[in-house]
Amino acid sequence: MDKIKINGEFIQLDKLLKLSAVVQTGGHAKFLITSGEVTVNGEVETRRGKKIYKGDRVQVEGELIEVI
Length: 68
What we know:
Elements: E1 2-4, E2 10-12, H1 13-19, H2 26-34, E3 38-40, E4 43-44, E5 51-53, E6 57-60, E7 63-67
Helix pairs in contact: 1-2
GO molecular function, one term: RNA binding
Organism: Anaeromicrobium sediminis
Keywords: RNA-binding
């Protein structure tokens, strides 16, 4: 499980994925999100701009990312 610390109140889903080691480019993040391959707190999320807050858990390509 990756833990990513954010400084503000929230971060957009596509930006969070780019910070993780799972996704290297914004295009790859966009593809995964719009293809329905990303879950936020257990629910499929297809919006790139979805606001992710501290405590949220994002899963993509078998990797779990926890926002702290």
